Amino acid sequence: LGASRLKWQLPRPGVGIGGPQGCVTPQAAPSMSSPVFGRRLVKARSSPAIAVAPMSPCGDDEDEQGKEALLHDHATISRLSTASSTHRRGGAGTNTPPRSAGGWLPQLLPQRSQGPEAVEHLQSRCGGGGAGAFAAAGSANAAGQWGHHRLSALMLEIGHMRHEDVEEVVEHIDKIADAKEAVKLRRVFRTRAAEILTSIPVRQLDRARHTVLLVQRLDDEPRLVSGTMHTSSASSTSPLGLGAGASSFANDCPYRSFESRLVHLAHHGAHELDVLAKCLTVSCDLLPQGLIRPKAHDILLACVLRWIDREPLRLFSRHAILLYELAVEEPALTGAIERRLCRRAGRPFAQLGQLAGFAQLVLDLQARGLEVLDGPSSPVLDIPSAKKFPPLQVALLCALRVILKDWTVERLANELKGPILEVCLIRQNIQESIRPTISLKVTEHLNIMRDTVMRRAEPSSVQKEIINWCHFVCQVSGAGLVVIPEPLREHLLAGPDELGSLVFCAASCTPGAKELPPEYLGCTKALLDRVQALWEAVASVMVALGDEAEVRFASVMLDEARQQGRQRLAGGGAAAAAAA
User: Which residue has the higher pLDDT, 439 or 247?
Assistant: First the structure.
């Protein structure tokens, strides 16, 4: 804006600034090189709402004072247009007031009566010529221009609104008394709110939900128009235009934008339950009020169901509390979790610790409030027991029967404890249905050990098998899962004279016993290493399954086994001393 622009801003020779009254002659006018006069004229000309008042012919000092007074009064009205142009340029000009903590709105929201008062004040400061000029323009026109600039500045400020300023902007919109201005501002606010809701991150979903509720409050707020109470067009139907009347996309813009953002976040966070849970919780809060369409809510629910169906089960224990909270909001999730657990229980547990981990997961979900063992699905028939139980209980019973059939006694002794036994005891249906299978396993394997002894299998392996069987029996009998009929129990706990009893099998691989087969005499040294552990295991079984007399007999045998162990250690020490 060099000297060429200043040249056009200065008055032409013989023509006054304000017309024939009081012209400024070229001799009285300041020179083109005067930067002060040129800059002030440019500022006065830049405001479209300002009518330049005529000036009386005077000297440089009086002319300068008159321009200072006039331009000071012009700043009251020209501030709005200057601020608007500065915002459009994207910079911070010298005429832009500093942005306070409350934003522009406290400065741009005077009462409606301030427009005419500012015009009257400007007329009184401009003198007779200024009053004539404003009378020609009309005070009503000046007041209208004041309201137009104020509304434009408010709309511009709403267009630059940040997410944290939404509540404050809504409060200021509520203070607008003019119904037409309020409708325009609400329309701009809805558009800006839709832009904000389109790009919110996951951490701001709670604030976004509050923003949607504020938009709904503005839509449902009644307005006084022409002396009659009317409501907004969005309140005549549901917020998403699902009622009787047709609704435009503009009215649905904030709600559609928010639900689109929720679906987008759920799609990109498909493997993160925290993100899915946040989106689904917000949707559950807004769905009863009609702010989220059922179709969008179903999409979010489908994302959570897909996570339950596809993610590893080890993540379920980590998110057990979160799954319970989601199941409270959506009961359908409990059925999905139950079906996933039933599907896993139907597959074999090949690796060590898999069944124990699965049982612990069921216990964790039960402890967090997810009653998956008594799930919402209809009861199914358990064929071995001929009874109907909930699906997960039947699946657990089938899994336990499979491992009792396929697993070795050593693995059963190592794994059938802790969480697995707790799951068996957590429901009476499971306990009563699995007890016959475990009792049958105990008696059948005793016959297998007898056959092993009779065919003279490797004696060390026979000892290990008897010890593992005793540990397994003690564990399941302690949980109340073994019930052996009386004839079989007497046979199991009989003395070494009865073929096939537990004591007979143990004595058949004990050095020094008369039941020791001749084929085992060459393995005496290897058998001595486990003699004490063998008879301690046998005594523990007699205590677990026997009566008082059998318990006393078991105690005598245990004392003899300990004495033999001490003698063996003493003999080994004497032999070592003799060798030294």
Answer: 439
Q: How far apart are CA 326 and CA 317, in angstroms?
A: 14
CB 129 within 8 A of CB 18: yes
* Interatomic CA distance for residues 34 and 516, integer angstroms: 129
Residue 292 near residue 255, CB atoms below 8 Å: yes
Q: Hunting for tokens 């007699």 — which residue is that?
A: 542
Q: Which amino acid is at 121?
A: H
H helix or E strand, kind and range, residue 229: strand 228-230
Selection from 528, 521, 515 nearest residue 561 by Cα: 528
Q: If residue 110 lies in a helix (H) or strand (E), which one and from where to where? A: none
CA neighbor of 106 nearest in space, from 154, 166, 145:
154
The answer to whether 508 and 515 are in contact (CB under 8 A) is yes
CA distance 31 to 37: 9
Which residue has tokens 């006018």? 29
- Long-range pairs for 163-170: beta carbons < 8 A, 24 or more residues apart: 163/196, 163/200, 163/204, 163/207, 163/208, 163/211, 164/207, 165/103, 166/193, 166/196, 166/211, 166/214, 167/210, 167/214, 168/102, 168/103, 168/105, 169/105, 170/214, 170/217, 170/218
Question: And the tokens for 548?
Answer: 């008082």
Separation between Cα atoms, residue 493 and residue 546, nearest integer Å:
7
User: Which residues sit opposite 380 in a β-bridge?
Assistant: 389
DSSP states of 346-365: TS---STTHHHHHHHHHHHH
List 381's β-bridge partners, or say none: 388
Segment 186-243, tens digit of pLDDT: 888 888 989 999 999 999 999 999 999 988 888 875 443 333 333 343 333 344 444 3
Put residue 330 in one of left, alpha, beta given phi > 0 → left and psi -120 to 50 → alpha. beta
Instruction: Give all strands (DSSP E) within 23-163, no chain letters.
Output: none
**SS3 at position 533:** helix
* Cβ neighbour number for residue 311 with a 10 Å cutoff: 16
DSSP 30: P
More confident residue, 355 or 25: 355
Handedness of CA 487, 489, 490, 495 (dihedral sign): positive
Rg (CA), the chain: 46
389-398 residue pLDDT tens: 999 999 999 9
Distance, CA of 360 to CA of 351 (rounded, Å): 16
d(CA 579, CA 558): 32
Q: How far apart are CA 172 and CA 154, in angstroms?
A: 10
CA pair distance 430, 400, nearest whole angstrom? 10
Full-model pTM: 0.67
Angle at the Cα of 12 from the Cα atoms of 9 and 14, rounded to 5 degrees? 150
| 548: CB partners within 8 A, 6+ apart | none
